[in-house]
Design brief:
12 helices; EC 1.14.11.61; 15 strands; alpha+beta; feruloyl-CoA 6-hydroxylase; 2-oxoglutarate-dependent dioxygenase activity; dioxygenase
């Protein structure tokens, strides 16, 4: 018989503080979603009302960057960055076998007993570069997200091999290392498209902090009442995301914030592809030319889903602000210059709320 979680404190302690996570709730035999997970109606995801972005229009072949179609490929990447903020890439240089191993490793990590995962809770983790948790910032959220995660910050190979969980450390490290050149190339092409030249050290400072997450979305008895991840944009420069075959990732089309006119597009999984999305830092650096993508994740009752993002972020000590050449050309700076650490502190201090995180840097 499933335990009762009518008391919000007992639910919070079980899921968050004790590290059982959403998976612990599901494993307990839960047949309906506890009230703390029920989203207000305007935050719920109506699958029927979302458009599906056709795969053939979304997958960009990165191998063609080195051929005669280079300019057309850059144009496609830039167009996606200026509009939806999301695109998918194939022939990206990350081995397909590794992508399969990542999904298997994610399931292996989350299928462990709760006490094994709880060893990485923030308060007891052997290192600040590894954190296991649930939802986003559960202490400040009115409604919790139906998601557990393990987050691993990359400092160097030896730290990763020593502190990251055994179930996933080798494949996660390989994922970060094999994707680095792709991320650098995409950033070079996007900055070049703005007709600005950045030297390698400046480029590196925009992607010098890398963090890989493994996200786990357990089956949900009432998916229509919940979200896996609430609407938000990522804080970094570029995010590389591996989806499994289940789907459930939605991106908002355009920046119209009027809830009556919103259009959401489902990003369908494409076998062997990686999803790329623009983060807030690149929107700031490009003075608003490139758009960070507002996105969210639906839950499902049919199967547990995993996703594995790499967040490529500026170094915490890096200053982020509109590139001076763009400010001179545009005649206005739309964002102030600030340390990325300040932006990051603000981002993690608030619940997900669309692209509100950008207001922290915006010049009104």
């Amino acid at each position: 018989m499933a335990p009762s979680f009518n008391d919000e404190n007992s639910l919070f302690n079980f899921v968050v503080k004790d590290g059982n996570g959403v998976k612990g709730l599901v494993d307990s035999g839960l047949t309906e979603v506890p009230g703390r997970y029920i989203q207000p109606p305007h935050q719920r995801i109506n699958k029927q009302q979302a458009a599906t972005a056709l795969p053939e229009n979304m997958a960009i072949d990165l191998s063609e960057l080195d051929g005669p179609n280079h300019d057309q490929v850059v144009k496609a990447i830039a167009h996606a960055a200026e509009t939806l903020g999301f695109f998918q890439v194939v022939n990206h240089g990350v081995p397909l076998k590794l992508l399969d191993s990542l999904k298997v490793s994610a399931h292996q990590f989350f299928s462990q007993p709760a006490e094994k995962k709880a060893a990485y809770l923030k308060a007891v983790s052997p290192s600040p570069i590894v954190k296991y948790g649930t939802s986003f910032v559960p202490e400040v959220e009115k409604a919790l997200e139906w998601k557990d995660y393990i987050s691993m910050v990359y400092t160097n190979d030896s730290d990763a091999l020593e502190f990251w969980p055994n179930e996933c450390k080798e494949v996660a490290l390989e994922y970060i290392k094999t994707s680095k050149e792709m991320v650098k190339r995409l950033l070079q092409e996007l900055i070049g498209n703005l007709e600005v030249n950045l030297d390698d050290s400046r480029l590196e400072s925009l992607m010098g902090l890398r963090m890989v997450n493994m996200n786990f979305y357990p089956t949900c008895p009432n998916p229509e009442l919940t979200v896996g991840v609430g609407r938000h944009s990522d804080m970094g420069t570029l995010t590389v995301l591996l989806q499994d075959g289940i789907g459930g990732l939605y991106v908002k089309k355009g920046e119209n914030s009027s809830s009556g006119n919103e259009e959401w597009i489902e990003i369908p999984p494409i076998d062997g592809a990686l999803v790329i999305n623009i983060g807030d830092s690149l929107q700031i650096v490009s003075n608003g030319r490139y758009k960070s993508a507002e996105h969210r994740v639906r839950t499902t009752s049919s199967a547990s889903r995993v996703s594995v993002p790499i967040f490529n972020l500026p170094l915490p000590v890096a200053k982020i602000g509109p590139l001076p050449e763009l400010v001179a050309r545009d005649g206005v700076a739309r964002y102030r210059e600030l340390l990325f650490q300040e932006y990051m502190n603000n981002f993690f201090g608030n619940a997900h709320e669309g692209k509100k995180s950008l207001d922290f840097a915006a010049i009104n």
